[in-house]
Design a protein that fits this description.
Number of strands: 0
Order of helices and strands: HHHHHHHHHH
Shape: flat
Number of helices: 10
Helix content: 55-70%
Radius of gyration: 19 Å
């Protein structure tokens, strides 16, 4: 329970810090008001070509919303609560502590990545649509950064996906704690397939490269 509370608190702190850095990186982009061409995304181009050749097959497969954040979270919570039915020989608090720890570390990698290199947004005019003009003072920048939550990201935090880092924890949890249980492998295959399709859709919809 102690580790659970510690990592849960660290996750909340990391999400607030990440929320602030999303704003800072977007506001300090020197080309935020320019119409900068997006980077060439070869994965998106390849799947766009596939959709063009066989739209009836590829379009539903790639565009249908198999799963989202709520579904992966519910899968992780279902595993944590399964201890009540003796499905796994682990602590539910312990499993969720690992879940929070993985989320924190994965999203810190994301913050480091989008702070290191500012990438052009594939959607023109992103900053003007989503953010106010940056304040002149450092205190104004800090205040604006914590004034509102930006759960859907910013304009330049395009690698790595924060949602993707979160989604990945559910199949990892099942692999670590439920892999040897009955139906464990089938559940893992289902979760990894849903993760692959959801992450690919995230890129095809130009939320991330």
């Amino acid at each position: 329970v102690g580790r659970f509370c510690l990592w849960f608190s660290l996750m909340i702190a990391e999400l607030l810090f990440e929320n602030f850095m999303v704003w800072v990186v977007s506001a300090t982009d020197v080309r935020k008001y320019e119409d900068v061409p997006a980077l060439q995304d070869n994965v998106a181009m390849a799947f766009d070509a596939l959709k063009g050749r066989s739209p009836r097959f590829w379009a539903p497969l790639l565009e249908f919303r198999w799963a989202g954040t709520v579904h992966f979270l519910c899968a992780a919570l279902a595993l944590a609560f399964s201890v009540a039915w003796d499905q796994v020989p682990f602590s539910g608090f312990g499993m969720m502590a690992r879940f929070f720890a993985t989320t924190v570390l994965g999203r810190l990698v994301r913050v480091a990545a989008f702070c290191a290199t500012v990438l052009p947004n594939p959607r023109p005019g992103c900053y003007a649509r989503r953010f106010p003009p940056p304040p002149d003072s450092a205190w104004g920048v800090v205040r604006e950064g914590f004034r509102q939550l930006r759960g859907d990201g910013g304009c330049n935090d395009l690698v790595v996906s924060g949602h993707g880092a979160f989604w990945t924890t559910a199949p990892l949890m099942f692999g670590a704690f439920y892999g040897d249980a009955r139906m464990g492998r089938a559940v893992q295959v289902l979760l990894w397939a849903a993760l692959a399709q959801t992450a690919l859709r995230d890129a095809l919809e130009a939320f991330h490269y």
